[in-house]
């Protein structure tokens, strides 16, 4: 199992996912000008997810023979699980963990960054096995 995380494909996934995470993180800050934090997390995740799908299809899972619409459906399913992880971790960090540790600066940014990082491994496995097989 660990071996699959030591591959060029996983490295490419990390790079494309990193770009998508930057889109996710940056767009959340922009969305927060118009909507509240919990909803901004969801909209930002969707922005990052669209970016991730396009980049993963082009750069990571090029050999996938699966139909585009089928890949998109499975991509959304895998990401629904990931967005739940992201949201729960972000909320838990922002409203419970960080305040209990006395953190007062950049709480939302730290919480959201932690929430974005966690699903990297579960998403890779899901996309490899279902979205782009």
TrEMBL record:
<feature type="transmembrane region" description="Helical">
    <location>
        <begin position="37"/>
        <end position="60"/>
    </location>
</feature>
<dbReference type="GO" id="GO:0005886">
    <property type="term" value="C:plasma membrane"/>
</dbReference>
<dbReference type="Pfam" id="PF04138">
    <property type="entry name" value="GtrA_DPMS_TM"/>
</dbReference>
<feature type="transmembrane region" description="Helical">
    <location>
        <begin position="12"/>
        <end position="31"/>
    </location>
</feature>
<keyword id="KW-0472">Membrane</keyword>
<keyword id="KW-1133">Transmembrane helix</keyword>
<dbReference type="GO" id="GO:0000271">
    <property type="term" value="P:polysaccharide biosynthetic process"/>
</dbReference>
<comment type="similarity">
    <text>Belongs to the GtrA family.</text>
</comment>
<protein>
    <submittedName>
        <fullName>GtrA family protein</fullName>
    </submittedName>
</protein>
<feature type="transmembrane region" description="Helical">
    <location>
        <begin position="72"/>
        <end position="98"/>
    </location>
</feature>
<dbReference type="InterPro" id="IPR051401">
    <property type="entry name" value="GtrA_CellWall_Glycosyl"/>
</dbReference>
<feature type="domain" description="GtrA/DPMS transmembrane">
    <location>
        <begin position="13"/>
        <end position="132"/>
    </location>
</feature>
<feature type="transmembrane region" description="Helical">
    <location>
        <begin position="110"/>
        <end position="127"/>
    </location>
</feature>
<keyword id="KW-0812">Transmembrane</keyword>
<dbReference type="InterPro" id="IPR007267">
    <property type="entry name" value="GtrA_DPMS_TM"/>
</dbReference>
